[in-house]
Task: inverse folding
């Protein structure tokens, strides 16, 4: 079974600075999808960014970008120019693209604090 | 669209009582998911439906839990009888197609069983 590990339970960053959240995963599959979700105090889960494993180019969404290292099974999230509104729990998630399973497997999350 | 709608937002009940959580997915979405979030176990998929048919219920913890989707616009998750260890936030999510597509989450129901 696939597993997702987020080794940083908590991280903090100064406003306007850059922070990187780590995520590693374990899978024997070659085709899959990776996601980062944000959960602010309101509890609403919001998709931040996603990556298809067959694409070598790292995904970017405005201030958010990923560093996808397929061989290392690593999928880190970089937040540039951090804003107070970025404070939230961040979850890394994996979904298989084969075998018909549509299950999203989540990591335990990283709590990000943004200091003014 | 109003997004995924869940009710109630908060539920407090006593051990042994039946609890029913409700979800209205985004119109036109073919897939519906129920998740449970706890501090200890994180986010876990309980069950998901495709076109109202349960596809994978391997995450349902035990027979006390049941889920139904009688039509494309409504699903329920029922716990009977409830126990204190069922206390968690329960999320419903829906998506149009799978694979790369985004799952849209509802605001969750915080369940407390005393």
Result:
């Amino acid at each position: 079974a696939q597993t997702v590990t987020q080794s940083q339970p908590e991280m903090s960053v100064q406003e306007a600075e850059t922070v990187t959240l780590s995520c590693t995963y374990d899978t024997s599959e070659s085709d899959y999808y990776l996601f980062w979700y944000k959960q602010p105090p309101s509890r609403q889960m919001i998709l931040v960014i996603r990556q298809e494993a067959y694409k070598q180019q790292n995904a970017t969404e405005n201030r958010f970008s990923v560093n996808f290292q397929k061989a290392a099974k690593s999928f880190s999230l970089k937040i540039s120019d951090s804003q107070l509104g970025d404070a939230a729990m961040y979850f890394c998630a994996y979904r298989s693209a084969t075998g018909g399973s549509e299950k999203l497997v989540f990591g335990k999350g990283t709590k990000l604090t943004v200091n003014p | 669209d109003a997004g995924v709608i869940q009710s109630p937002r908060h539920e407090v009940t006593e051990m042994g009582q039946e609890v029913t959580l409700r979800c209205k997915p985004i119109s036109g979405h073919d897939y519906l998911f129920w998740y449970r979030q706890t501090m200890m176990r994180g986010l876990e998929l309980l069950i998901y439906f495709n076109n109202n048919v349960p596809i994978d219920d391997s995450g349902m913890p035990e027979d006390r839990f049941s889920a139904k989707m009688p039509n494309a616009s409504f699903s329920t998750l029922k716990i009977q009888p409830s126990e204190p260890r069922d206390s968690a936030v329960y999320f419903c999510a829906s998506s149009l197609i799978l694979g790369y597509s985004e799952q849209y989450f509802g605001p969750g129901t915080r369940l407390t069983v005393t």
Summary: The radius of gyration of chain A is 14 Å. The mean pLDDT of chain A is 93. Chain A touches chain B through 21 residues (CB under 8 Å).
